[in-house]
Amino acid sequence: MTPQQQIVRRLIDEALNRQDYSALPELLHDEYVYRTPGEELVGVEALRGRFEMYHTAFSDLAVRVDDMFGEGDRVATAFTLTGTHAGEMMGMSGTGRRVSVNGIVHSCVRDGRIVEEWELMDEAALFRQLEGAPD
User: What is the pTM of this model?
Assistant: First the structure.
């Protein structure tokens, strides 16, 4: 595993899976930008807010790394997010339903910290599962 991959892995293991937000300033560059289709978050606190929203929505949130590879300062991570919908998410109250959603994140690491990320997650599958529709 490259040093860049280790940094991205720590973000997933520590901040997401263990909710250790104190690791974020060490892992994220001062100029950090997170992008998804139609959204852009800037800075450590913005990403912390996103993580907190997911932890509130999914009481037992877990992100599994399915594949990780990269070259130079670029890291691509395929993941599966699982959890039980216990709290509000995007205006939808907790349903108690279990979800499993796939996604991919492309990260750029500069000066030993993540400076940019682009995430695509199958939000259509997420909302189908939250609504109880077959996926």
Answer: 0.91
